[in-house]
Design brief:
A six-stranded parallel sheet has the order 3-2-1-4-5-6, with helices on both faces. By secondary structure, it is α/β, with parallel strands linked by helices. The protein binds adenosine-5'-diphosphate. InterPro entries: NAD(P)-bd_dom_sf, RCK_C, RCK_C_sf, RCK_N, Trk_Ktr_HKT_K-transport.
């Protein structure tokens, strides 16, 4: 049987991943070496097991190789997190997402083959700073170090103009991928689409270009 996800470590981070995946209807195996945590997730995950993920035999026994994606959400035990990630990659797990506590930890996880490294405190801090630094930017998704998708509220300088009239793509090198207007969403708006005051523009581009656009027009 093809299994979906395994979450190792059921603290705040791993626990919320486990809970959300289960809500989304995914098959989730939850694992922790703390019995209380395992009991807490027994009714939430498809399976909850007590075990030490640094023990290769335990991981083999549960057939960890058959999982599409394993999330290593071990909190402050960096050694256990690294060892678990190493064993998972050695056993041939395709996708391993691991939580890092600091930059050094992140570097090591990437070096030993983690496919994605999450750094929740740092990333959330950056996200909140981006969101609160300007009242016109509602939300922000970092695509790479230099590119993002941002939600910008159209003010009176934008409202009433068409996209082509503002010449956004040529002038700033950014694209409006969608417009949220009340409960409507206009995906891939035409150049002739008129922007209304209060529209939420979902814009994609280089951070420097988005910033140029924001400074000039918002
Ligand atoms: P946070 O709340 O920041 O996500 P925690 O430290 O509270 O992090 O949670 C980490 C979880 O990982 C704990 O429930 C802990 O019992 C579990 N854990 C730590 N080491 C192992 C291990 N070797 N095997 C399985 N679970 C582990």
């Amino acid at each position: 049987m093809k299994k979906d996800f395994a979450v190792i470590g059921l603290g705040r981070f791993g626990g919320s991943i486990c809970r959300r995946l289960s809500e989304l209807g995914m098959e989730v195996l939850a694992m922790d070496n703390n019995e209380e945590r395992v009991n807490e997730y027994a009714s939430i995950a498809s399976h909850a097991i007590l075990g030490d993920s640094t023990d290769e035999a335990v991981l083999k026994e549960i057939g960890i190789r058959n999982f599409d994606h394993v999330i290593v959400a071990i909190g402050d035990n960096i050694q256990a997190s690294i060892l678990t990630t190493l064993i998972l990659k050695e056993l041939g797990v395709k996708h391993v997402t691991a939580k890092a506590l600091n930059d050094y930890h992140e570097k090591v996880l990437l070096k030993i083959g983690a496919d994605v490294v999450a750094h929740p405190e740092r990333d959330m801090g950056i996200r909140i700073a981006n969101n609160i630094s300007t009242s016109t930017v509602l939300d922000y998704l970092e695509l790479s170090d230099e590119h993002s998708i941002v939600e910008i509220v159209a003010n009176e300088r934008l409202g009433g103009n068409t996209i082509i009239g503002l010449n956004i793509r040529a002038r700033y090198g950014i694209n409006i991928v969608a417009i949220k207007r009340g409960s409507d969403i206009i995906v891939s708006p035409l150049a002739s689409e008129k922007i209304w005051l209060g529209d939420i523009l979902i814009v994609i581009g280089a951070d420097t270009d988005i910033e140029r656009f924001r400074k000039k027009v918002i």
